[in-house]
Amino acid sequence: GIASPEAEITVTSGSNIPHESTYVFPATDLGDTTDVVFTIRNDGSLDLNLTGGVVITGVDQTYFFNPFSPP
Predict the structure, then answer these.
(1) Which of 14, 43, 56, 69 could be joined to 8 by an S-S link, Cβ 3.0–4.6 Å?
(2) Which contacts qualify for 8-17: CB closer than 8 Å, 24 or more apart?
(3) Is the pTM of this model over 0.70?
(4) Given this model, what pLDDT does residue 69 score?
């Protein structure tokens, strides 16, 4: 039969980040900054549409700068 299109993404930041997992940011001294880059790759056969921005949650979310936050 004909295979249905599937959605599949891979998220990395130096190494693969498993689906439905969390990312532990490196320890950073107060007043210092640390850049972390996430790469999102479309491995599926459907178009990848990133909508709604990037949302940071958690107890210390106010300590993070998010240039892609939703309006």
Answers:
(1) 43
(2) 8/42, 8/43, 8/44, 9/40, 9/41, 9/42, 9/43, 9/44, 9/48, 10/40, 10/41, 10/43, 11/38, 11/39, 11/40, 11/41, 12/38, 12/39, 12/41, 13/37, 13/38, 13/39
(3) no
(4) 65
